[in-house]
Amino acid sequence: MDGTDTAPVRQTVATRAYAPWPVTDDAGRWSLTVTTVATAVGRVVVHHRAGPDPVLLLHGVAGSWTTWTPFLAATDGLGARGLVLVDLPGWGSSPAPGTPFTVDDGARVLVAVLDALGLPSVDVVGHSMGAFVGLHLAVVAPRRVRSLGLVSGTTTATARASRHPWRALRTLPAFTLLRAGLLVTGSAAHGLLRGIARTGLLPLVAAPVFAHVRRLDRSVLAAFVDEFRPALFTAAARAAAGYDVDRWRSVRCPVAAVLGRDDVFARTSDLDDLRRLLPGVRSAVLDDCGHFAHVERPVAVAAFLTATAD
């Protein structure tokens, strides 16, 4: 994940079994220690393991450190490498921040975590919103990021949709309608989602997010419900709307981006945009895959990210 070959490549990756592993909160399986780190934004919970060439895994919206466990299963926990999995403020076990979370907050939190763990630099892999935050970290703290892996990254299309929601009804209808619905329902949205889960209709609601929602292990949808935070989703969309993606042109580390062809929150056109901003980016499209590529196609994601390191 820290290769030096920067030739732009786009490919379609063959995938294996769909969503072959459950989501689990068994930190002991990967010898992870749990630490709470105080940051300027608030306390954050970090699952980590010492080792060479550490990898920082960043979850997205409706995620936490546990969302990465199918990917860890696919990579045998990345072998002997160090691991850092952060629950960003308000997500997972980390308390909600006192003010709306911003991309700058995300970068400050990550720098504080790396400082607390004594890590000068890491390979960063981010999913969805985590990819956005990872890109920003590479902009503002470039020496801390050896390489970037963007998994189902919500990047340029999401930024445009957040700025111009009516236009986005054509380009990103699922994202736009979800955001509008959350603005209407507000804090009641989480309770509504839990109620839908109890009635057995959750697969119908979650179907746009996953390519094959009924083939998912029950743990995946349970984590999706548990980690969905409406106010934080809205804050993340607001932060994306105000962000100048041209700042990503300053990123100099190797970047690899992979997403699903059936993703309703990230588009394959995002990869074209990223190549214009980051000419050396490697990219791949996973067939038969939705927005949670590291859960739906963890073997293919791992194979692609590993290949870019060769």
Shape field: globular
The mean pLDDT is: 83
Helical element count? 13
Identify the CATH class: Alpha Beta
Unreliable spans = 2-15, 179-186, 188-197, 199-204
Q: Element order, helices and strands? A: EEEEHEHEHEHHHHHHHEHEHH
The CATH superfamily appears as Alpha/Beta hydrolase fold, catalytic domain
Terminal Cα span = 8 Å
In terms of quaternary structure, the protein is single chain
Number of strands: 9
Strand order of the largest sheet: 1-9-8-7-6-4-5-3-2
Strand content: 15-25%
- CATH-derived architecture: 3-Layer(aba) Sandwich
Query: Any idea of the CATH topology?
Result: Rossmann fold
Measured as a percent range, the helix fraction is: 40-55%
Specify the biggest β-sheet. 9 strands, mixed
Q: Can you describe this structure?
A:
40% of the residues lie in helices and 17% in strands. The chain is of the alpha/beta class. It has one domain: 3-Layer(aba) Sandwich (Rossmann fold), CATH 3.40.50. The protein has a 9-stranded mixed beta sheet with strand order 1-9-8-7-6-4-5-3-2, sandwiched between helices. α2 packs across α3, α4 packs across α5 and α4 packs across α10. The longest helix is centred in the middle third of the chain and has 15 residues. The N terminus is likely disordered.
